[in-house]
Design brief:
alpha+beta; Trna Endonuclease, Chain: A, domain 1; Arc Repressor Mutant, subunit A; 4-stranded antiparallel beta sheet; 4-stranded mixed beta sheet; 13 strands; hydrolase; endonuclease; nuclease; endonuclease activity; TnsA-like heteromeric transposase endonuclease subunit
Length: 247
């Protein structure tokens, strides 16, 4: 249902490629309930020799599908969404908004759409704050109002802080379910019921090199917890059971 600011949203059009591969275009008031977290990108991720940014695909563990990015900052943003335990699915370049500001026609394609475990939709635009000029700020502000009208969240994100970024990139290596070994995982849960240094706890379970991938996987899934913002993960990082795991 649209909120009280929905009157002017009736003038906003949305174009997208739905989960069944069909391109659609029409009033946002009609299509806002679509599962945009399953949409295909509305534009391709082009790479060419000499370009200053890097494009590619990140495999999202939450939706078990590739998610495109057009810069390292976007890739890190996708990784952070994938790591968030309340995010259950996400898609890149999920739709294109079109509207008129009275003087000219405008368009905007957000970078990501995420679906939360409670059903809430989240629209994400990725741009470091020092690169947000006046025109971009206006577009983001308009997009935020559109999101408010249809009950979505809007987030503008930039560079992740270090060392969180370093730790996130490291843990993402172990996001795949192939790193899950339940006998080892269960023993790790028992050992870290009381907080312990990372390496010391791993060695109580077995061979450290064999145990660490499972330990990092449990950290990725939020079954184990550590302070990822204080310093890079290391031998003395204190690890314990988490109160919020991913379902």
């Amino acid at each position: 249902m649209l909120s009280s600011v929905g009157d002017w949203v009736s003038g906003v059009e949305v174009g997208f490629v739905s989960a069944d591969g069909v391109a659609r275009y029409g009033p946002l008031g009609r299509w806002w309930g679509e599962p945009f977290e399953q949409a295909s990108p509305v534009r391709s991720f082009v790479g060419f020799k000499g370009q200053k940014n890097f494009t590619g695909e990140y495999w999202a563990a939450t939706s078990r599908s590739p998610v495109g990015y057009e810069s390292w900052v976007e890739r890190d943003a996708a990784m952070a969404l994938d790591f968030d335990p309340v995010v259950v699915a996400l898609a890149s370049q999920p739709f294109r908004l079109a509207w008129s500001d009275g003087d000219r026609d405008r368009e905007h394609t957000p970078d990501y759409f995420a679906r939360l475990v409670d059903g809430t939709g989240v629209v994400v635009d990725v741009r470091p704050e020092d690169l947000v000029d006046e025109a971009t700020a206006e577009v983001f502000a308009f997009t935020a109002k559109v999101c408010e009208a249809v009950g979505w969240q809007f987030r503008q994100v930039g560079d992740l802080d270090q060392p969180y970024r370093v730790n996130l990139r490291w843990l993402a290596r172990y996001r795949h379910l192939r790193c899950q070994s339940e006998p080892v995982a269960e023993r790790l849960r028992e050992v870290f019921a009381e907080p312990l240094p990372l390496f010391a706890g791993a060695e109580l379970v077995g061979d450290r090199l064999a145990v660490l991938p499972v330990l990092y996987h449990l950290l990725w899934r939020h079954e184990l917890a550590a302070d990822l913002s204080a310093s890079p993960l290391g031998a003395d990082t204190v690890v314990g059971l988490s109160i919020r795991g991913r379902s």
